[in-house]
Amino acid sequence: MSSTLESAERKALRTAVAALGQRYGREYLARVAREGGHPDELWADAAKLGYLGVNLPEEYGGGGGGIAELSIVLEELGAAGCPLLMMVVSPAICGTVIARFGTDEQKRTWLPGLADGSRTMAFGITEPDAGSNSHRITTTARRDGDDWILTGRKVFISGVDIADATLIVGRAEDARTGRLKPCLFIVPRDTPGFGRSVIDMELQAAEKQFELTLDEVRLPSSALVGDEDAGLLQLFAGLNPERIMTAAFAIGMGRYALARAVEYAKTRQVWKEPIGAHQAVAHPLAQAHIELELARLMTQKAAALYDAGDDMGAGEAANMAKYAAGEACVRAVDQSVHTLGGNGLTREYGLGSLITASRVARIAPVSREMILNFVSHQTLGLPKSY
Fold this sequence. Notes:
Blueprint: H1 8-34, H2 40-48, H3 67-79, H4 86-101, H5 104-116, E1 121-124, E2 140-144, E3 147-158, E4 165-173, E5 180-188, E6 194-198, E7 209-219, H6 231-267, H7 279-307, H8 311-340, H9 352-363, H10 368-379
Parallel strand pairs: 1-4, 2-4
Antiparallel strand pairs: 2-3, 3-7, 4-5, 6-7
Helix pairs in contact: 1-3, 3-6, 4-5, 4-6, 6-7, 6-8, 7-8, 8-9, 8-10
């Protein structure tokens, strides 16, 4: 069977998750965000049904599937108006990295909880002065006997307040070359010296964004994930799922907005026919649907390559999927709001806030320009400008 077509099991998963999403919907998530809470009920229900850990190994309580299955869960919740952002971080990035590279002890400690939703983990890579350039990360890790000492800052880290720990990307000195190499550390939330402050965002979301400070944070040797010499490999093993899941997040949001606009265009009557009969309304919505479907196809390809163990192929496809989904989402949301006219900006219809939210898919976790750089250099072989 072609990797771009979904099996009966995956179609059944889509249907089941969509049913869960319909029970909650956009109004639930909006209310939770307004009240400053978290979508705990939806998270618990998704966990109970086995959706949160569908990509994690069965021996640790997961579903034994891959990023293909996990991305379906996020997309369908998004299409219902209630995506769970922490799915991108906790099971997709952190769960994948620990399952692939963690010690037996780390797997036993974390994977069952990540799989059943009882524990969550945040991911800390972005820094104030590094942006998308992971080579400029200044958070350093130095040895002190058997311990590690971490010092540095991180920004735009999601959900640190509710996560039991944060997977922090630091850089340690290579004893042989003296050069700094990336390493990943599990930092429990209440570790001394590990501080956080909330970033005031225009975006209204249940998951808050934080700036983190690591002030001489002392960690035992067991906090290091995997082999300190394989840090770069481990890092990219987490970033590819992040891009695939961000694409799924964007496609779900675009589908949600488009469905609301189509529903409106079928029933809204200003002249003799509903406004959806007019090509100036219908064609842009059809175009948005096509672009979302194309983005989903590339997301499926990226997930299939990743789950098959082709990290290089998955890296290229995951970047392209994230780019395509981000663009398709922004255009779908924009056109949907425009289709509703003034109603598109009312709280009743719930589309106006997606204008801000949809930009996230163009900016995070890596900007569209950096993806174009990647494709220019890695795929087309053009010279670097930096």
